[in-house]
Amino acid sequence: MNSNEKRQQDNKKLGLKLLWIVGAALLFGFALVPLYNVLCTVTGLNGKTNATADVTSNKVDVTRWVTVEFTSNVMPGLGWNFYPEQPSVRVHPGQIETVNFVAKNNTNETVAGQAVPSVSPGLASPYFKKIECFCFKRQELKAGETKLMPLRFYVSTDLPNDVKAVTLSYAFYNAVKPAN
Amino acid sequence: MSSTTAAHHDEHHDHPTGIMRWLTTTNHKDIGTLYLTFSLIMFLVGGAMILAVRAELFQPGLQLMKPEFYNQLIGVHALVMIFAALMPAATGFANWMLPLQIGAPDMALPRLNNWGFWLLPPAAILLTLPFTLALFGIGDGAIATGWTFYTPLSIQGGIGVDFAIFSVHLLGISSVLGSINVIVTILNMRAPGMTLMKMPMFAWGWLVTAFLLIATIPVLAGAVTMLLTDRHFGTHFFDAAGGGDPILFQHLFWFFGHPEVYIVLLPVWGFMPQILQTFSRKPMYGYKAQVVSLWAIGALALVVWAHHFFTVGMPVPALLYFMYSTMAISLPLAVLFFCWIATIWKGSLSFETPMLFATGWIVLFGIGGLTGLVLADVAADAQYHHSYFVVAHFHYTLFAGGMMGVMSGVYYWLPKMTGHMFSERLGKLHFWLTAISFNLTFIPQFFLGLAGMPRRIPDYALQFTEFNMISTVAAFVLGFSQLIFVYNIVSCVRGGKKATDRVWEGAEGLEWTLPSPPPYHSFTEQPIVK
Fold first, then answer.
1. What is the DSSP annotation of chain A?
2. Structural domain containing residue B298
3. Is residue B121 part of a domain?
4. What is the pLDDT of residues B91-115, one digit of tens each?
5. Which residues of A sit within 8 Å Cβ distance of B?
């Protein structure tokens, strides 16, 4: 009788202890969200660089050329046109360049959008430095408005030699979730 | 009341009868029976779904269904087979056999046990209800993303996704409760004298499984919860518009999803050596090596998840890490394979139905393992990813390695559970039909995959027709031969030749010291193990 009751209590205790592992695993799952972002930003994996670069100590390497290509996508739910003024530019590493993207709101209401950049090859993304970019914050367009959206960037001189072309892709999203 | 009088009293079956017996039961054998019955029913439901899919794939073009419905069928088929057929089968065996094998009177936490089971039927209903709702014009059917819930598709999906999310929550709670129960039972309830290293291998397999479950199911629960809030409450965990990342979902999902493979297989790896030694009439080879390998595989399973999406655009160092760590799993797995083969090596083999399934299982699961090595190779995977090669590979591991293993276990323990022998003739017929039609179903899919046929598409190019026809015909033979299995089980439950206590000549272990069927309450006085 006594040993039975004691065993039942032992069982309950161990069961509750195991619940802590379950709780820790649940927390770990949610902790992976910031951890994943930190890992991507620190290592520049996945083309995830959206930090403002500084312009200090900018040497230009005139012996090399890098082609920077631009692609643009408007995601479903955003009634805009969005495209780069030129499909690509050739730059020297270190040389600061400005290009313009054109965005036009085709709807008859004010819409906010957010551009999300991605660089490929992913390994080149830490070397792609944006000084000024429309993707740093939300952009608002009034009904029918057209806007030039500038991007100032340079490609770092540390870019590995075998990379001859870098593609910068923008996906423009509706910044307000549509109600459905 | 002392424990001995309680035991005496209980022999008069002091429990409610009829439906209330099953609803309120805390008896490990009753709950085990419930789990196994539920698993068998859902196995047939999931099978019926995929037969509809195979019928559609019999020839190119769309004949029977719309692509949307096809997508729903393949996703729900996978969820049903994994969460409602394979996992409950393993838990059913754990409930029935663990207490008997380790000499315990019952599972450690009987009420929790009851809860663990009765969460399953509502979960299964939630998962499949959207099919029915769609008939009445509510929603657009069940989840159509495949079983992986990949974002952004799952963010855009209909109410089927929400139903599947809640279903996964319930299934997850059920498995976590079941796992806690198994761990506590194994650690606290063993018969006096049964040290950890004297435990039956099945207990080891389940112990590793249970730890994997409580470490990974909460991550899945978290991931689908984030998906839910992304869908309805304006968060942006996986929504790029708000700074989230759809790839994050793949990491979260497969952090659970890869261990899940071993969660399904480890219990089978536990009881298979016991079946092999029974019908080889010699002791299990390499007990210690097997225990160490089970833990090694359990540990490695947690750190290899990204090999499921090599093509997503990971940097080379990450690719290499996940490739090497994945291939490293084949080392402990090879140790297990050699132990299994060495167990039957030069034994006095006899091929009763459980042994037929067990030996067939070694060969077919071996093919599943080896084709997995091909997919683990980053360079090769770029070609095979998302092709029918993958489909064939994981059916060799999950159907042959998982389900045929479970069938072997069913035939092995059914006489013990029911007290009757099943029909050997029908059992053997079931084995040969299953083994042959299984191979005819999936070998063509290897070739289809190598030839470039993508998975999850209801239509295909003309040159794939012949292989798909063979695969479909064989799949129907495979599906309908499972009715022999059902018939054999049902008639064995209803009657048949009386089974002896030991059932099989070479059977070793505490469960065989009890009568067949064992009394409702067994081992109320624990046996002493020397």
1. -HHHHHHHHHHHHHHHHHHHHHHHHHHHHHHHHHHHHHHHHHH-GGG---PBPP-SS----TT--EEEEEEEEEPTT--EEEEESSSEEEE-TT--EEEEEEEEE-SSS-EEEEEEEEEESGGGGGGEEEEEEGGGS-EEE-TT-EEEEEEEEEE-TTS-TT--EEEEEEEEEESSPPP-
2. 32-513
3. yes
4. 999 999 999 999 999 999 999 999 9
5. 1, 4, 7, 10-12, 14-15, 18-19, 21-23, 25-26, 28-30, 32-33, 36-37, 40, 43, 45-48, 75, 114, 116, 120, 122-123, 171, 173-175, 177
